[in-house]
Amino acid sequence: MHLAHQKLFENLDKNGAIVVIETGYASLSPKTHREDYTSFPIFYYPLENIKHLEAKQFIFLLKEEYPKLKTIVVGYDFHFGAKAKYSISHLREFFDGQVIVVNKVICENIAVHSKTIRSLLCNGEIELANKFLNKNYKITGRAIKGQGLGKEQFVPTINLNCGNFLLPQNGVYATKTIINDKEKDSITFIGHRLTTDGKFAVETHILDEDISEIHSTIQIKFFKKIRENKKFENYTDLKQQILKDIDNVKIFYTRAV
Fold first, then answer.
1. Residue 36 and residue 234: Cα distance in Å, rounded?
2. Where do the domains of the chain lie, and which CATH numbers do they carry?
3. pLDDT, tens digit, 9 for 90 and up, residues 26-39
4. 143, 149 contact by CB (below 8 A)
5. CA 125 to chain CA mean position, Å
6. What distance in Å separates the CA atoms of residue 88 and residue 169, rounded to the nearest whole number?
7. What is the rounded distance in angstroms from the CA atom of residue 51 to the CA atom of residue 83?
8. What is the pLDDT of residues 136-190, one digit of tens each?
9. CA–CA gap between residue 170 and residue 51 (Å, rounded)
10. Between the chain's N and C termini, which has fewer beta carbons within 10 Å?
């Protein structure tokens, strides 16, 4: 639900709805999490179920499932049907209602597309990705048991299983962790724990607060990448770096206020 999508939604009235084609790619907002960003109902169609349809068949499907359909809103580069060979001209030819086409949306001199945002996230360019999203990138995870070293050797963390969310590039990030609808300044690590057990982890540490109770569902908003993931010679060096990272995140939030 990025900046360009929001331009599409501006053309919907109170009876509007959103149709999402599920491609199977890593999603910026998996399935029902998209509903956090819109008040319109969302209807999902697996690509596998409709990719064989010719233009008339696709439009017939829409009219059959939405009998009061009068207007279709699409982006300037919209394609549909078998092998995506049909374009807006075909939509206007075969649909007897109104077709509204939203022009290209530009941010920082770059066209806003989901694939571009995915690339930015995978490169750790969180701040630019957030501009394209018109919000801070957010993931949702289920709290799981970690290796048990954090509280004893370093700082206490909450370990998460984040399911189908696209995770930003491995590294350390300035984040806000949402627990029971309350945002808390935090620092989050994504990647393989190279200095300890080598396993992949998503771990978040709440700044200046001892979280004794592990809540089942937790959300994390990403603001800035602090550093790359790296291996340290020993636990002492790792802890010193973690404390330095925490200081850097505090400085970031102080400047952001």
1. 42
2. 3-114 (3.40.50.620), 137-256 (2.40.30.30)
3. 567 777 788 888 89
4. no
5. 13
6. 36
7. 7
8. 999 999 988 766 655 556 688 999 998 888 999 999 999 999 998 889 999 999 9
9. 34
10. C
